[in-house]
C-alpha cells in the first residue's frame, strides 16, 4: 500500500494509481508555505495533502499509445494550433503579468527573487503567445515549444523560470522509463540549491488552474507537476471525482506516452517537445522511481510497479535538504540540465 515517509513533506512529487484508473503527478511544497496569486506572494493556507485510503495501491500502468503519426523516439509532428473557441478558465489569478518581457540576460538572484519577487522583473513577465526554449543536457539537446493559449498561467510561470534560468543545473531525478511501451513521465525542476528550492516552493506556489487543451497529456507534452488532492471543488477544471491537481511552483514533467488519464484531474498541458524527443527518451532511468513511492512496497521489489528497483531511488527529503551534492554522491549517473536558452 502507498504510504508517506514521515520525514517527507506531505506534498511531494508522486504518482498515484487508484484502481488502475490514473496516475497523478505531484509537486513538493511545504504545508506552511504561501500561495502566490497573480505573481504576488500572499500568506494563505495551502490545502492539506490527501491521506490516501488503505485500499489505494499502485499497479501496473496502462499500455502506452504513442502520439498518432509519430514513431517512438522520434521528434513529434506539429500539433494543431489552439482553436479560436477553446476557452480556458483561470482561478486564483489576479492581475495579468506585464506584457513587456525583460531581457533574458538580466538574470536575477534566485534567493532574493523568492524573498522579494518585485526585485526580479522576470517574475512579472508574460509569456509570448508562441515561443521556444532550448534545454542543453548531459544526454543531448531538446527544444520545447510553448503555446500560451493552452494554459496561460502555466506558460507564464514556465517563461519566468526560463528567463531566470531556474532549471540550469537541475537533475532529472525521476525518470519513469523502461522501454518504448513501459513508461510514464520524466520530472525535473529543483535547482539543486536547498535554500532556493525550499523558498520557491514555500513562497512562489500558485493554485492557478486552466482547462486541459487538446490533445491533452500525450507523448511529448508538458505540464506543471502538482498535488493530488481530494476533490472538494477547489479546481473547477477537474472532473475526476476522487483526485484533482492543485498547486504548482517550479517542477514540470514531460509525458513519455499517452497519459490522457491525467486530463480529468486538471493537469493542463502548456507545451510540447518540438525537437529532440529521442534525447528525452535517453535520459538515465536506471535508479527507478523516487524512494518516497517505493519505500513501503516490498523492499523496493514490488512486481506490480515496474519503476521500483531493487535499490532505492532518489529520496526527496534528502534532495530538498542537501541538493545537488546529495545527487552527485549517490546518483552520479543522473542526467542534468546544463543550460537553458530562450530562443
Could you name the key traits of this structure?
single chain, 343 residues, alpha+beta, eight-stranded antiparallel sheet, two-stranded antiparallel ribbon, 6 helices, 14% helix, disordered N terminus
- What is the end-to-end distance? 45 Å
Unreliable sequence segments: 1-105
Can you give the helix content as a percent range? 10-25%
Number of helices: 6
How would you sum up the major sheet? 8 strands, antiparallel
CA gyration radius, whole angstroms:
18 Å
Order of helices and strands: EEHEEHEEHEEEEEHHHE
If you average the pLDDT, what whole number results?
Answer: 73
Strand order of the largest sheet: 5-6-10-7-11-4-3-12
The secondary structure category is alpha+beta
Overall form? globular
Write down how many β-strands occur, each being a DSSP E stretch of 2 or more residues. Answer: 12
Strand content: 15-25%
Verbal overview:
The chain is of the alpha+beta class. Helices cover 14% and strands 18% of the residues. It contains six helices and twelve strands. The strands form three sheets. Strands 5-6-10-7-11-4-3-12 form an eight-stranded antiparallel β-sheet. The N terminus is likely disordered.
Strand and helix map with partners:
Elements: E1 35-37, E2 40-42, H1 110-115, E3 130-137, E4 140-147, H2 152-163, E5 174-177, E6 183-188, H3 194-203, E7 221-224, E8 227-230, E9 243-246, E10 252-255, E11 269-275, H4 277-282, H5 316-322, H6 324-330, E12 337-342
Antiparallel strand pairs: 1-2, 3-4, 3-12, 4-11, 5-6, 6-10, 7-10, 7-11, 8-9
Helix pairs in contact: 3-5
